């Protein structure tokens, strides 16, 4: 008996930004980007593709796949760090857009871990009330939160949205467990300022703009170790061996982080779903986009053990295991 995925969906912007085009914006090159990150292209949002609009389209696709009406949703949570407004939340805009009139809705700020933190929440709510249906979305337009002169960051990220509808199943399928962490002590390694305060007393002295800032090498080291620990801790707690896992859907940060992780975990690479080459790092959207693509490609079979892991600003990280 557990919390199952009833349907998945994704939506990415039309516009593709290739590495070759990036060469015209900043001092970089295709070979460097491919070899250091595995990224070949990313999607960049245009008119009518705000975070909530991409999220709403992904949500509508997930609802259609689940054969669930928007009015059946009791809770709508959206992981994002790139809303077009600070208030209301993007989740409230999505609620209006899709007509989820019976849901209460709010955003989760957990950077790249936003979707998995939302999934954990969905599981806990549904365990408490099995009649509830929860829509969890991860959506970002980080293209609007990048310093396009900073080659350390602007080559990495992309825009998009993914969504999943969760509900209760009386079968033996569903969420087996989650292992979630944060460490605010390491915030300086990956962060984004808020708009400058209008209260002079609260102005942050080194506010250099509301864009992503990162110590890439440090993030890299922490990301690999943290995701490994989260996965190993979860599997040990649930007494499940890594060999038993059928599919791994990791946060699509970059190929070198993932190769390191795969090697340390000892997972055959053919079990790991990757799409980072097409979309770059879409932060909170990366796992649900990958999940929707894996689902659409028929890679997830009933009874499969599907493992997720994420790492992002905060730091936030975690792992989740679902019997599909
Ligand atoms: O969700 C988590 C989000 N964050 C991440 O996933 C990022 C994790 N970090 C990384 O993936 C890697 O640290 C990067 C891909 C960001 C950078 O790779 P690196 O191997 O750690 O490179 P580096 O920062 O140590 O830089 C090596 C060289 C430097 O030149 P010098 O000083 O050796 O002459 C950089 O200036 O590469 C240079 N460089 C670039 N060259 C061409 C840095 N960015 C670029 C670039 N194009 N875009």
In short:
This protein has helices spanning 19-22, 30-37, 51-66, 90-98, 114-128, 216-238, 255-265, 276-279, 286-296, and strands spanning 2-11, 15-18, 41-44, 75-79, 104-108, 134-140, 160-169, 174-182, 190-192, 212-214, 247-250, 305-312, 316-323. It is of the alpha/beta class.
What does this structure look like?
With about 325 residues, the protein is an alpha/beta fold. The protein has two domains: about 1-170, 3-Layer(aba) Sandwich (Peroxisomal Thiolase, Chain A, domain 1); about 175-195 and about 210-324, 3-Layer(aba) Sandwich (Peroxisomal Thiolase, Chain A, domain 1). The chain is about 30% helix and about 25% strand. The chain is built from nine helices and 13 strands. It has helices at about 20, 30-35, 50-65, 90-100, 115-130, 215-240, 255-265, 275-280, 285-295, and strands spanning about 1-10, 15-20, 40-45, 75-80, 105-110, 135-140, 160-170, 175-180, 190, 210-215, 245-250, 305-310, 315-324. The strands form four sheets. It has a five-stranded mixed β-sheet with strand order 1-7-6-4-5, sandwiched between helices. A four-stranded mixed β-sheet has the order 8-13-12-11, with helices on both faces. Strands 2-3 form a two-stranded antiparallel ribbon. The longest helix is centred in the last third of the chain and has 23 residues, at about 215-240. The two termini are about 10 Å apart. The site of oxa(dethia)-CoA has 20 residues, from helix 2, helix 6 and strand 12.
């Amino acid at each position: 008996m557990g919390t199952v995925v009833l349907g998945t969906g994704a939506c990415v912007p039309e516009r593709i930004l290739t590495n070759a085009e990036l060469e015209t914006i900043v001092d970089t090159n295709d070979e460097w980007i491919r070899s250091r990150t595995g990224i070949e292209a990313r999607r960049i949002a245009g008119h009518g593709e705000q975070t909530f609009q991409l999220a709403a389209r992904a949500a509508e696709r997930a609802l259609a796949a689940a054969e669930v009406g928007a009015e059946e949703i009791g809770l709508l949570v959206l992981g994002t760090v790139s809303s077009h407004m600070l208030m209301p939340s993007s989740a409230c805009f999505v609620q209006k857009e899709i007509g989820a009139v019976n849901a209460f809705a709010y955003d989760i700020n957990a950077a790249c871990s936003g979707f998995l933190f939302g999934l954990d929440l969905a599981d806990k709510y549904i365990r408490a009330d099995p009649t509830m249906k929860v829509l969890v979305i991860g959506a970002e337009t980080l293209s609007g939160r990048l310093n396009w002169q900073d080659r350390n960051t602007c080559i990495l990220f992309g825009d998009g949205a993914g969504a999943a509808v969760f509900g209760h199943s009386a079968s033996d399928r569903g969420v087996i467990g989650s292992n979630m962490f944060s460490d605010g002590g390491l915030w300086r390694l990956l962060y984004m300022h808020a708009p400058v305060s209008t209260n002079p007393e609260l102005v942050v002295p080194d506010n250099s703009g509301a864009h992503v800032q990162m110590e890439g090498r440090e993030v890299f080291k922490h990301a690999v170790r943290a995701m490994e620990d989260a996965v190993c801790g979860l599997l040990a707690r649930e007494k499940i061996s890594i060999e038993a896992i059928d599919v791994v859907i990791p946060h699509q940060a970059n190929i070198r982080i993932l190769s390191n992780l795969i090697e340390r975990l000892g997972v055959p690479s053919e079990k790991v779903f990757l799409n980072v080459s097409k979309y770059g790092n879409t932060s909170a959207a990366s796992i649900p986009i990958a999940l929707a693509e894996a689902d659409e490609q028929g890679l997830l079979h009933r009874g499969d053990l599907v493992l997720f892991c994420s790492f992002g600003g905060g730091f936030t990280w975690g792992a989740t295991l679902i019997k599909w």
